[in-house]
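Consider the following assembly input.
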Amino acid sequence: MYESIDKNVNRSVTFLKEELDIFHSLLEHKAVPKKTLLLQDGEICNFEGYIIKGCTRTYYIDENGFEVILQFGIEDWWLGDVASFHEQKPSKLFIETIEDTELFVFSPQTKEELLFRVPKFERVFRLLIQRNLAATQNRLFKSISQPAQERYLEFIEKYPSIPQRVPQHYIASYLGISPEFLSKIRGKIAKK
Amino acid sequence: MYESIDKNVNRSVTFLKEELDIFHSLLEHKAVPKKTLLLQDGEICNFEGYIIKGCTRTYYIDENGFEVILQFGIEDWWLGDVASFHEQKPSKLFIETIEDTELFVFSPQTKEELLFRVPKFERVFRLLIQRNLAATQNRLFKSISQPAQERYLEFIEKYPSIPQRVPQHYIASYLGISPEFLSKIRGKIAKK
DNA sequence: GGTGTGCATTGAACTAGATTAAGAAATCAG
DNA sequence: CTGATTTCTTAATCTAGTTCAATGCACACC
């Protein structure tokens, strides 16, 4: 049950068995049916989660009521609104399950306790957020400099499992284009 | 000399005089003429800096040789490539001074020493990177969902001093549009 | 078994923004 | 002060991507 999350945190720091035991004892296991909102605009994000199984989407709603998908979450990904969680201020994000999803979650309290009892986790979480920042910067750069078709090709190469699991218009939203145009791009690629 | 940086770090955590003394003793002061590259693609970023005075731009170069500006830096801003600095891996970014610039800088070693001697700084740096992530996510969201004119208006409202200090085509690059189109937008706004 | 309801595709008309080119204005080096 | 270089503007043409239908498709649901 803890295999995948252990492997995930062990990637950057090596832990002793006792440290992992503390880690496990502080994790809360959660099963959530599909189409459930884990977080809404205006709410304070009271969890940080690791996806054991399932699929989620994190999105904004713009002033015209349009959804813009910021990221998908699948197995072995971390989930939450870091700023809202740590500063305990209202989030602007929505997080919704797309499939039935199993998670390990922390509350602010249990995370703090973990960091207190096993300070090495500071490094794990710092690396996570650094990688998240680098990935977001990279995506911003590409959404500015690359045409939609290349962004799409890169997306399916990077996340080959996602197109089979989520409606296509979610991917269009993630790429910042209309569903019709994504359909046209796909038609064009298929012809080759 | 340390006034502004002290105010900056004190915003999120309160420090004692002795702690600030340690902090100051580890900062290196640096004066850099304009049009100097502080970091290049392929280099490992060996500094994290705070801008006392001056102006910088951080940018990528895409596969066609086009520059895309990721952010500007002015007084009271932090500078660097967080991931490259901490993981000591090659950066994909360029950082260049636009004006003569004065900085305080850390090396990886001095930053580590600071964190060791005054662990409260962990929190300061974590908050900085969290805010950076939230701002970058927000910008990605807007670059996907808002038209260029609104993004421009928001930019000049948020950073009123920058348009007076940097060439206009840098702002176009930051907004992800061509300089000609930005000029058109400005013409249109001025007419009203 | 029908019948909604959400999803993908296709095409036509449209628009935001790119590209190219040329001239005007500003800035800089000597 | 002067020529050179960089920057900004304007206008014409072009294109990536949108919007607005209409149609077909695949299910879930009773």
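Chain B is about 45% helix and 20% strand. Ask yourself how this observation constrains the way the partners meet.
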